[in-house]
Amino acid sequence: MSKAVGVNIRGVNVSYGANHVLKDVSLDIEPGEFFAFLGPSGCGKTTLLRLIAGFNHADSGEVRIGGTDVAGLPPWKRDVGMVFQSYALWPHMSVARNVAFGLEERRLPRAEIDKKVAAALELVGLSHLAQRRPSQLSGGQQQRVAVARTVAIEPKVLLLDEPLSNLDAKMRVQVRRELRDLQQRLGLTTIFVTHDQEEANTICDRIAVMNDGVVQQVGTPMELYERPANLFVANFLGTANILDGRLVDEGGRRWFEIAAGARVSVLGDAAVPAGSKLVFRPQHAGVAAAGTTSDLPGTVSHREFLGATVRYAVRVGTAEIVVDAPFQNGDGLHAPGAPVAVTLPAQAILWLSA
Amino acid sequence: MTAIALTLRRYSAGATPGQIGLALAIALFLAVFLVVPVATVIYVAFTEKGTGAFTLVNFQDFFATDLFVRSFWNSIYVSLMSVAWASAIALPLAYLTSRFEFRGSAIIQTLGFLPLIMPPFVGAVAMTLLFGRNGTLNLLLDDWLGFKIPFMEGLNGVIFVEALHYFPFILINLSAALANIDRAMEEAAQNLGCSGMRLFRRIVFPLAMPGYVAGASLVFVKVFDDLATPLLLNAKDLLAPQAYLRVTSIGIADPMGYVISVVLIAGSIAAVWLSNLALRGKDYATVQRGGGGLSRRTLKPWESAAAYAVITLILLLVLAPHLGLLILSLATVWSFSPLPDAYTLAHYARVFGDSSLYIKNTLIYAALAGTIDVIVGTAIAYLVLRTKLIGRQWLDWTAMAALAIPGVVLGIGYLRTFYGVSLPDGTPLATLWIMIVIALAIRRLPYALRACHAALQQISVSVEEAAENLGATKARTVRRVVVPLMTGGILAGFVTSFSTAAVELSATLMLVQSNSDAPLAYGLYVFMQSAAGRGPGAALGVIAVLFVALCAYASHRLVERSEKKQGAVR
User: Fold this and answer.
1) What are the structural domain ranges in chain B?
2) ipTM entry
3) Which of A213, B79, B493, B503 is deepest in the core (most CB within 10 A)?
């Protein structure tokens, strides 16, 4: 396997007519990294992936693969392997012929092609199905053929376009582990496009969260969850309470007032830029009986028992706060309609703006 | 009694007596007018004249007679060459329209409907005047360059006219197949290092193969069965003309016409069977998820110019029969000169006098045939889609099998089967004009059936269940809900049947007994037989073309309008 290469994207803009799909996108993907483009549909992640593969043109900016600017290279000269969302297996060829295709296009000798096809199929555990037609395979098997076909040419970079979206939930968990194992074994720089945060979190080293053609934040899954850079990232990754309010100074301390009589003390050294909102994860807050604390008085509007946790929706003024309380046997639960108070440790609070 | 009732219940599978009666009536209609005549033809071919004993002697005679063997190979040669030339025209056009972004695509798509509405024999004579040995093009070539191209010599003429006429069948099917290819199929190949013509050869064309083969086999069968075009071009050493000439000149007792008919049927079926064999396991439509067609790019200026040049050339060729027909209908004398000596409207005046009878007959025949088709078509569609009647699929298959029966074979079958059946006053059934109507109806039934079937398929069953829930019986539901909703499809089916029946000739040629019963297409054929009749014949042809074009336009509008009306509900 050749040495892994990095992908560097600098100031890329792509427009379709008046539709500005990618806005000044810059990213550095390290050699050997498993990297995800994560975002809702229409955020530009697939456009960016196809740009790397050569199926799109950038209006400005550059894409470097292993240090080389690829702007002038057509898709067939780029040596980046792409696994398509629909797999795009050719139905008129057997599995083995599908896998051999890229090697044949590279004019390798027959013996070498056969060896590499066997190796690629071995890698994905499908040697026994080499002579089948794609239509005779299950979805998971087709997906593995698509991967084998792509890695057989030993590409510089592996691109995966929502490769799990056509699989059922159980297969998805299995296949994403296989993909991760494969990537680790090959040490191949891999870019994975998905709209599913769980997929991205479980298999990727780093994630670029995208929205509306703009990279919102780049980081490891943990960094993104714990220190989201803005409201979009906080909301897109996991559940977050996002509360509006205003800063008030009283008695020499700063408070963030959500509603009349409901306010949170702001840590002395916390920077709270103008227009910020109060953000925290449900599991970082607690629910206490009314009157035991002065934090955020409210009433329980919904209660869902989830087994390990109890999820409360607590109405505080006009806002509704979601709190996940761990459930231990014998705990008394707060009933809907009960007056309660939401407890919120100051360290758990993030101040974010759009 | 109980046993019979039980059996009845088992076979009816919950159908109402009305539905069973309807199914039986349709089965009877198809049996009498399709199955029995065709079976009779086959029976006669395989039995000894007079005794009725099984024999293969007739086939031995067929293969021992030079003329028939030559006709057999000629038919296959002409059909294959027509497919080859039609492909040579259709492939570049399909490639252009599916691959590139340019306005000529619309023109090409429009071309696709010409052969659906106009049989090739209409323009055949005009083609001789344009491309024949002493036709316009060859006279000009001879003048300027000193050589001639034998476009129309012998079988070449049939191949030339048929290929020009039927290439859109390949174009339509191939374009549809190309449009169904998932773009990712192509991109995956590019991603793995493939591009250009290699990409087309290794990925795109194999994936579009089913569409190509479907179109090509259709062209083969159409050409193989065509009777009127070779007759008008005087290429008689082909199977269909031989069958016709045998029966009309020697008589319906001679077995050879029947043997040729069986060979014609076998040829049609073999072509369809071979194409199915070639496509086995290759119906890719279900495997492909994305669709959306290949990626298109805009043409560079010089490419665009070249593309338009190709299209203009093909367009000129395709319109040549129609243009030629128009010129011929207005010409005083057109012989040994690139263009007619002078122009006149006399031919139109003549045919308007003489041919009002033809036009009246055509209107009556085609309207009746179309009506029969949509009634039977709607009924079969309803039985197939909405009941669980045992054997309902057979009605559908039998009706569709009419596609494989050449018109000349059906005509011979009718003559043989119904000649022996006489009315009380002694006229044989086969000589009545109503038999022409029924033959036309049987020939066009598959088209109407498919239109009705598609229309009914689009109606949700719950719409009917709602009517029944509110107290309507099955019959009343059909009348008040189903048929009104199907109107668009039924109308489309009617107009297709009507307009193609109006210009159908092969079965008609066998069945027309007197000039007073003849439709437009027959009159056209009779006129075209003589040099003096060409002008009036062409005028009649122009009238037929306009007539059919008007019908096609009307059907298009009707379908559009009824779709718009129902669009809000669906």
Assistant:
1) 64-125+147-304
2) 0.77
3) B493
Kindly give the residue spans of alpha helices, DSSP state H, lying in chain A.
45-53, 95-105, 110-123, 139-151, 169-186, 197-203, 221-226, 231-236
Residue A236 lies in a domain: no
Strand partners, A217: A209
Q: What are phi and psi of A9, to 5 degrees?
A: -115, 130
Cβ-based neighbours of B66, under 8 Å, separated by 6 or more = none
Helix (H, G, I), strand (E, B) or coil at B546: helix
Condensed to tens digits (0 to 9), the pLDDT of residues B214-266 reads 889 889 988 998 888 898 888 888 988 888 888 888 877 788 888 899 999 99
Nearest-Cα distance to chain A for B195, in Å, is 7
Q: Are A133 and A217 within one domain?
A: yes
- What are the CA-CA distances from residue B465 to residues A142, B471, B480 (Å)? 41, 10, 13
Whether the CB-CB separation of A161 and A84 falls below 8 Å is answered with: yes
> Collapsing DSSP states into helix, strand and coil, what is residue A13?
strand
pTM: 0.77
Q: Answer for the pair A151, A120: CB distance below 8 angstroms, yes or no.
A: yes
Q: Are the C-beta atoms of residues B132 and B178 closer than 8 Å to each other?
A: no
Shared domain for A54 and A107, answered yes or no, is yes
Q: Considering only alpha carbons, which residue of chain A is nearest residue B195?
A: A76
Pick B187's closest partner by Cβ from A84, A133, A149.
A84
CA angle at residue B548 from B542 to B554, to 5 degrees? Answer: 135
Return the CATH class of domain B64-125+147-304: mainly alpha
Q: Give which of A67, A201, A33, A50 is closest to B190, Cα–Cα.
A: A50
A341 and A254 share one domain? yes
Q: Which residue has the higher pLDDT, B286 or B186?
A: B186
Tell me the helices (H) and strands (E) count for chain B, helix number first.
Answer: 28, 2
Q: What is the CATH number for A288?
A: 2.40.50.140
Question: C-alpha A255: how far from its chain's center?
Answer: 34
Shortest alpha-carbon distance between residue B207 and chain A (Å): 7
Closest-CA residue of chain B to A155: B192
B352 contacts B360 by C-beta, under 8 angstroms:
no
